[in-house]
Amino acid sequence: MIEETVIRVARKDEARLVATMIMEAMNHECCQNFAGEGHTLADFHRMMSELVEMERSQYSYRNTMVADVGGKVAGILVCYDGALLRPLREAFIAAAREHLGRDFSRMDDETQVGELYIDSLCVLGEYRNRGIATALLRSSMERAREIRLPAVGLLVDKGNPSAERLYNSLGFRCVDETMWGGHEMRHLQVNV
Question: 20 to 30 A from 148, CA-CA: which of 29, 32, 176, 192?
Fold first, then answer.
């Protein structure tokens, strides 16, 4: 029997799992880079869990859509209005100072005004190839329409052609190329 996938907003009590999945989407090398010397992925996970629990953070549970399959979280998509990146990022900057002793106040912007930005997308391994990422991406397009944003955008690593194929199949097109987190990225958008 195939279980139904329900897309819903994450709950605060799911913060630890959401943080784990955000870190998988970022990749552990990138997370360790953020954590810095003298800090572990566990340290970074604790910080990210706190950010997910917050009401006002780019990683807030309120900005996270969950793919729920039979009562289990199978995937997540974190998204927010690109115009709000800087105020939402303040929580990350403060947490990094407190937990990691690092200053990320000069970090490049990865989004822009006029798009709902997909910050993180992750589907757990055992749930992949079931259309869950597609359902999450479509729900982000619905959300963009609801809040009257003309586009949905994201960054995709040039070294991840399978992800880019998925995005292209849903109408995303490259609008710019950039470097972010030390990686060559494509900024993709789809008009909604």
Answer: 176
Round to whole Å and give the CA distance between 166 and 169.
5
Task: Note the pTM of the prediction, 2 decimals.
Answer: 0.94
Q: What is the pLDDT of residues 121-149, one digit of tens each?
A: 999 999 999 999 999 999 999 999 999 99
d(CA 179, CA 157): 9
> Based on C-alpha coordinates, what's the Rg of the chain?
16
Give which of 62, 58, 51, 43 is closest to 19, Cα–Cα.
51
In contact, 156 and 186? CB cutoff 8 Å: yes
d(CA 41, CA 32): 6
In 3D space, the residue among 101, 103, 95 whose CA is nearest the CA of residue 58 turns out to be: 95
- Measured on CA atoms in the order 82, 87, 89, 91, is the torsion positive or negative? negative
